[in-house]
């Protein structure tokens, strides 16, 4: 599929670069490489003077250690438990600044939003753990919300064409949505569109256009004053609601509109009744807060693949998860900042937050998004097929109904336009078929767009992974080849532009789909009305034949849809397998590189290897032989393995252990041993032979006449740089 590339301005510049490696392994699903994962940071707030003992330590910029809570005097128990280490994308200590937190978590999201991407950052944690401080902050220490908007306005200032920034601010209090810019509007409804992503919308929510940080500060202060804040035993100004600030950035040119959304969410604190000594109203609030946070936790659990292996993700349990659906399930870059208190008194809440946050590190967007789309499309086909089948049933029952008597036929008004009615019915059925076909085309197109979007995501994620290796936490830039970097940046800008175009196309097709569905519904209603007139009109064989034909057409349509649905599932499965293969190839390349480098170290350090490791190396060699055989048969040359040095000692060990049959011995291999100098009588059985770091190319490419004989080699060649 060829997609036009709109000409977007270069990203980066004043917005900086992402520093998170999104290419982490998703242990839960077994997916590796470029899955776009939720970025998880955890911030520890400063210990207050009256809080006593501290139970948290920052080990490094990614690890938090929770002190063991066992009785230090109980030696037996001490042995059984140990301090817990929790790993995140970023760990911020008590002395971390607002700027540091913003820079590493949200700064790059602002750039994404300007390129037409959606992004979400949300603060999670127990009451009084510092969420509002991070998200909103104070006038002297502004938080993420203000900094993000400031960056946004700075970046778009004087840019042509001009950008429009619209804000909305809502709170979710006791499962009710209130407009923080217009609280008098009362409770607002949450709706979901009919598209595959079920995008949530809040009916009647005020959107205010803003153009400067000071204007936004005023709006935010006004909005925050409207938030439901109450003193609790754990926090004097505890936010009792979840607050969501949505920023919509639009750039419009003649024939092109680009929209990016940034969602910033300050969640209400989770709390234990015993800690906050809540009664009455506070208890009800607490129950609602905990319910929605529990729902969020369940969603996080399900998305991370923990629990009993089920992949069903239930967003419907609370408005919070419904609102965050897209942020968590894909189509959005998401950052979660967990907050914890270092005080011993908050140990349980802290442990819970750390557990949730570390589970969240396993969430992968891409997988969920794919499954969502395919499942949704298959459900759509199923619905259409069941519609068709019920229509077939109805038509058949009419066909089976009694023919009218001659007297009835004679008694009909002579003006009944039988012919006209028949034509109308046929026209309506034709229209329905046309609309159903259009729907299938749209679905096919949406699927292709999805595949293309994934490809672009991969390009971007791989670039980001490379980038994160190049940038240190402080953002200092190492010396790299400027040319190569620029080249990469050009392709990543193209990928962003392409992605932005794809997303607009997706929006357009989803709207088209929804209109087509409406048209189809109207057409079906019209057909039913016409059919209702049929029984008394069916007095001739011709009309009965017409009805039989219509039934047949419906049956064929239903069969076609069923086939289409099956094809969709198969295509998806093939794509999934192709993805997996690609991942395995990448892993294999990495493994080979690791082994090669380790071998350098072993040989340079003259390290003697244990038997079991030698055996593993030998098994690895067998795998390479197998690959060489099968690749030869498949016509794919594995020339790299043709030039490997021999390992005589490994053969000896294998023989002794009864693996002799596994290594083919050939005259060619013997020649190779002597020519590469791999055999060394001075070595013990457990030593690896010295590597010949010179040229191994003495074999040359295999003659096409020579049968594929694998050389008895162990490792890929080592090219020293
Ligand atoms: N990183 C920090 N540096 C300085 N003070 C902080 C920090 N984090 C939190 N605090 C202070 O701790 C107190 C509680 O923080 P905050 O109100 O942000 O917690 P919260 O998690 O939003 O609580 P709740 O869920 O009850 O609203 C506030 O007085 C805040 O100023």
From TrEMBL:
Name the record gives this protein: Kinesin-like protein KIN-8B
Domain Kinesin motor: 37-363
Comp. bias regions, Polar residues: 692-706
Organism: Apolygus lucorum (Small green plant bug)
Gene Ontology CC terms, in alphabetical order: microtubule
One example GO MF annotation: microtubule motor activity
Entry keywords, A to Z: ATP-binding, Coiled coil, Cytoplasm, Cytoskeleton, Microtubule, Motor protein, Nucleotide-binding
Any Gene Ontology biological process: microtubule-based movement
InterPro entries linked to this entry: Kinesin-like_fam, Kinesin_motor_dom, Kinesin_motor_dom_sf, P-loop_NTPase
């Amino acid at each position: 599929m060829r997609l036009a590339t709109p000409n977007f301005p270069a990203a980066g510049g004043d917005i900086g670069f992402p520093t998170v490696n999104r290419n982490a392994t998703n242990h839960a699903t077994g997916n590796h490489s470029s899955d776009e994962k939720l970025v998880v940071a955890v911030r520890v707030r400063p210990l207050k003077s009256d809080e006593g003992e501290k139970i948290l330590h920052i080990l490094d910029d990614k690890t938090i250690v929770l002190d063991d809570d066992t009785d230090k005097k109980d030696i037996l128990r001490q042995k059984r438990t140990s301090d817990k280490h929790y790993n995140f994308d970023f760990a911020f200590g008590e002395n971390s600044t607002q700027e540091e937190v913003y820079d590493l978590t949200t700064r790059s999201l602002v750039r994404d939003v300007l390129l037409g991407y959606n992004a979400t950052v949300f603060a999670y944690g127990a009451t009084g753990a510092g969420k509002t401080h991070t998200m909103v902050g104070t006038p002297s220490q502004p938080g993420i919300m203000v900094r993000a908007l400031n960056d946004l306005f700075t970046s778009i200032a004087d840019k042509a064409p001009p950008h429009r920034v619209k804000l909305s601010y809502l709170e979710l209090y006791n499962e009710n949505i209130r407009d923080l810019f217009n609280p008098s509007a009362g409770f607002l409804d949450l709706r979901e569109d009919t598209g595959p992503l079920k995008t949530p919308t809040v009916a009647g929510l005020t959107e205010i256009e803003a153009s400067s940080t000071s204007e936004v500060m005023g709006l935010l202060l006004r909005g925050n004053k409207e938030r439901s804040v109450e003193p609790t035993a754990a926090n004097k100004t505890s936010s009792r609601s979840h607050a969501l600030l949505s920023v919509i950035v639009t750039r419009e040119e003649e024939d092109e509109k680009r929209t990016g959304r940034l969602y910033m969410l300050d969640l209400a604190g989770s709390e234990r009744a015993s800690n906050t000594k809540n009664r009455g109203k506070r208890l009800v609030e607490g129950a609602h807060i905990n319910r929605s946070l529990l729902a969020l936790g369940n969603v996080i659990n399900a998305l991370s693949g923990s629990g009993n292996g089920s992949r069903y993700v239930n967003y419907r349990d609370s408005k919070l998860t419904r609102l965050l659906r897209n942020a968590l399930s894909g189509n959005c870059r998401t950052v979660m900042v967990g907050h914890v208190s270092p005080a011993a008194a908050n140990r349980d809440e802290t442990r819970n937050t750390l557990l949730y946050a570390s589970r969240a590190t396993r969430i992968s967007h891409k997988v969920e998004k794919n499954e969502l789309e395919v499942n949704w499309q298959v459900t759509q086909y199923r619905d259409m097929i069941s519609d068709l089948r019920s229509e077939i049933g109805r038509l058949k029952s009419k066909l089976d109904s009694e023919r009218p008597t001659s007297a009835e036929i004679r008694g009909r008004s002579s003006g009944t336009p039988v012919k006209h009615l028949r034509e109308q019915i046929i026209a309506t059925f034709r229209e329905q078929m046309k609309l159903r076909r259009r729907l299938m085309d749209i679905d096919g197109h949406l699927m292709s767009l999805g595949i293309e979007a994934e490809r672009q995501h991969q390009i971007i994620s791989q670039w980001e992974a490379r980038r994160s290796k190049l940038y240190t936490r402080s953002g200092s830039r190492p010396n790299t080849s400027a040319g190569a970097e620029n080249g990469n940046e050009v392709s990543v800008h193209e990928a962003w532009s392409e992605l932005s175009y794809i997303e607009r196309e997706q929006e357009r097709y989803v709207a088209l789909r929804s209109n087509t569905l409406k048209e189809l519904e109207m057409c079906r209603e019209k057909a039913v009305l016409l059919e209702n007139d049929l029984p008394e009109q069916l007095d001739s064989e011709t009309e009965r034949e017409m009805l039989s034909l219509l039934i047949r057409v419906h049956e064929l349509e239903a069969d076609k849809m069923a086939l289409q649905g099956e094809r969709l599932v198969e295509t998806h499965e093939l794509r999934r397998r192709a993805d997996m293969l690609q991942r395995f190839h990448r892993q294999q390349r990495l493994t080979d590189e690791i082994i090669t480098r380790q071998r350098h170290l072993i040989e340079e350090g003259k390290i003697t290897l244990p038997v079991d490791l030698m055996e593993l190396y030998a098994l690895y060699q067998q795998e390479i032989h197998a690959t060489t055989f099968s690749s030869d048969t498949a016509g794919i040359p594995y020339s790299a393995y043709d030039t490997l040095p021999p390992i005589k000692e490994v053969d000896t060990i294998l023989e002794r252990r009864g693996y002799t049959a596994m290594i083919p011995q050939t005259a060619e291999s013997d020649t190779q041993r002597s020519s590469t100098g791999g055999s060394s009588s001075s070595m013990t059985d457990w030593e690896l032979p010295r590597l010949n770091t010179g040229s191994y190319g003495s074999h040359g490419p295999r003659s096409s006449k020579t049968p594929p004989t694998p050389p008895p080699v162990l490792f890929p060649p080592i090219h020293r740089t």
